[in-house]
Specification:
The protein is mainly alpha-helical and about 140 residues long. About 60% of the residues lie in helices and about 0% in strands.
Length: about 140
């Protein structure tokens, strides 16, 4: 125990430990996402990322995020937190499956709440959407092979 470190000697039970492991690992994920957002974005067809972050913020984040990561590491050590194991296969599968469900929820039969549904949606858009959803489901299924 280091008397100079205010985190030294903190006692937590197993449930509290699990809570802090989840909390801090999600913060770690958020920092990674912020870093990714600040990097050069990959061009997309349907999303335009407006680069409205000031150079001053970028510089501040560049120095602050590593400092925050060091704080997380210090807290993890002091609280004897264990890293969580995340299955890349399951994360990708869940993402693809969720998007396939969202697409299926956007078929013509579900669009009435947005106003009158033109028959062309059911005739031509629904098959294209279903094909897209099927592609996502097939891609997710290929992870299980």
């Amino acid at each position: 125990m280091n008397a100079d470190d205010p985190l030294s000697g903190i006692e937590i039970n197993d449930n509290q430990r699990r809570h802090y492991e989840v909390l801090l690992s999600r913060l770690e994920d958020s920092l990674t996402k912020v870093e990714s957002l600040l990097s050069t974005p990959r061009p997309q067809q349907l999303t335009i990322v407006e680069n409205d972050v000031s150079p001053a913020f970028r510089a501040h984040a560049e120095s602050e995020i590593p400092r925050i990561r060091r704080q997380l590491e210090r807290m993890a050590r002091a609280l004897s937190l264990q890293p969580r194991t995340v299955s890349l296969r399951r994360a990708i599968s869940a993402t693809l499956t969720t998007d396939a469900i969202r697409i299926e929820d956007s078929l013509s039969a579900h669009m009435r709440g947005y106003g009158a549904v033109d028959p062309s949606i059911a005739e031509r858009l629904d098959p294209a959407l279903l094909d897209l959803a099927d592609s996502l489901v097939a891609l997710a299924a290929s992870l299980k092979r």
